[in-house]
Amino acid sequence: MTLSFADTDAPSTALHLLTPDDLPAWRQRHSAEVSSWMERIGFTGALGQAALVPDGEGAIAVAGYGTPEKRARGRFHLASAAKSLPDGVYHLETDLPANELVEAVLGWLLAAYTYDRYKPTTRSGGARLKAPDGLDTKRILTVAESEAFTRDLINTPANDMGPEELEEAACALFDEYGGTHEVTRGDDLLAAKFPLIHAVGRASPRAPRLVDLRWGETGPALTLVGKGVCFDTGGLNLKPGGSMGLMKKDMGGAATVLGLARSIMALKLPLRLRVLIPAVENAVSGAAFRPQDVLTSRKGLTVEVNNTDAEGRLVLADALALAAEEAPDCLISMATLTGAARVAVGPDLAPFFTDDESIASALSQSGARVADPVWRLPFHTPYEALVEPAIADLDNAPKGGMAGAITAALFLRRFAEGAPSYTHFDIYGWQPTAAPARPVGGVGQGARAILDALPDVLGL
């Protein structure tokens, strides 16, 4: 599967993006034949409505596509045109504002995404788009390719995407862009003081590991931490079958930070990037960690395990503690962490937590600008007491179920102390129903908002 623009020299058909209000003036600017044809086929410019005007030889002379006057419900509306128009090359004729045009073009590219590792597709050439003038199309294509990279990682089932395969994909990515990597595996995690990562992953025959990747030598320091639980059975607190069905996506945080890292490196942003991925499989065996175990973290804080299915925050804790030791200018974690976040905001929004007002503002504005919706939830300090059990410093699964996304974020914040700025994203990483440019399956969330916000966040 290749995402690309059509060759700039290829003959192309004009695709006019029209609203109902645009249509009367547009018809007046065209010939009577075109205007009459549009009227005859009932084209009104309604959202998603396509119109094809033939020339005298049966080819397409003009194409129209209904677009919203303002950003309507949903995103990437033009992706539907890319899927429904006849094969051929098109160029856009539109007065859309620049940010909406970028969204339209990105959606067109992502409409070509398919996951075909196990079932190759036999698609024809499809509708191809020429890169519009005046846009940074290299950046748009990079973002689309990075999103496809993230989706491929999430969509790959756990039998082919375990800790070792996730490590290989991450290291190969950084090799491609001249980065470096260091990996700590198996029992070496104990000697290197990553006891929580080891505890969560030790029950699986597929050794747990911490993947430490770096790129860039100058500029501000950005560290990304991604949850890499390649499959989550729930451990001894075994998930029911219905809840286990999507757990190949529990490494969606790792996949998303790797996609973001790919964009950063491909665009050669002037910063020092570090990516930390604790990669494990939360399995069941005689070696599994148990409810009521008390574990000592890298930071020295003790953690009472009250649910082995709250393992993501444990592996992130050791990785965040390592990240904070360097005090990077900006520390961001991403994880498919809690069902409570989905209850709060649903699958389409990426909630984030931060105490940094400037980062919160930048992320919110960028999310709206690039159609990557994010929503701030609070680090509500009074709830700290909920993550403090009687016999240890911290509780990995407070009883009662109240404010589950917040208490998980507060747990993580304890391990990020020392970093000047910490932001946590609790993403879903999955598209449950097909939507324009987003088939059912793995999906990145928050990465485009972060990428757009980095100039403000880091002063690039």
UniProtKB/TrEMBL annotation:
<dbReference type="InterPro" id="IPR011356">
    <property type="entry name" value="Leucine_aapep/pepB"/>
</dbReference>
<dbReference type="InterPro" id="IPR048816">
    <property type="entry name" value="Peptidase_M17_N_1"/>
</dbReference>
<dbReference type="GO" id="GO:0006508">
    <property type="term" value="P:proteolysis"/>
</dbReference>
<dbReference type="InterPro" id="IPR043472">
    <property type="entry name" value="Macro_dom-like"/>
</dbReference>
<keyword id="KW-0378">Hydrolase</keyword>
<keyword id="KW-0645">Protease</keyword>
<dbReference type="InterPro" id="IPR000819">
    <property type="entry name" value="Peptidase_M17_C"/>
</dbReference>
<protein>
    <submittedName>
        <fullName>Leucyl aminopeptidase</fullName>
    </submittedName>
</protein>
<keyword id="KW-0031">Aminopeptidase</keyword>
<dbReference type="Pfam" id="PF00883">
    <property type="entry name" value="Peptidase_M17"/>
</dbReference>
<dbReference type="GO" id="GO:0005737">
    <property type="term" value="C:cytoplasm"/>
</dbReference>
<keyword id="KW-0464">Manganese</keyword>
<comment type="similarity">
    <text>Belongs to the peptidase M17 family.</text>
</comment>
<feature type="domain" description="Cytosol aminopeptidase">
    <location>
        <begin position="307"/>
        <end position="314"/>
    </location>
</feature>
<dbReference type="Pfam" id="PF21337">
    <property type="entry name" value="Peptidase_M17_N_1"/>
</dbReference>
<dbReference type="GO" id="GO:0070006">
    <property type="term" value="F:metalloaminopeptidase activity"/>
</dbReference>
<dbReference type="GO" id="GO:0030145">
    <property type="term" value="F:manganese ion binding"/>
</dbReference>
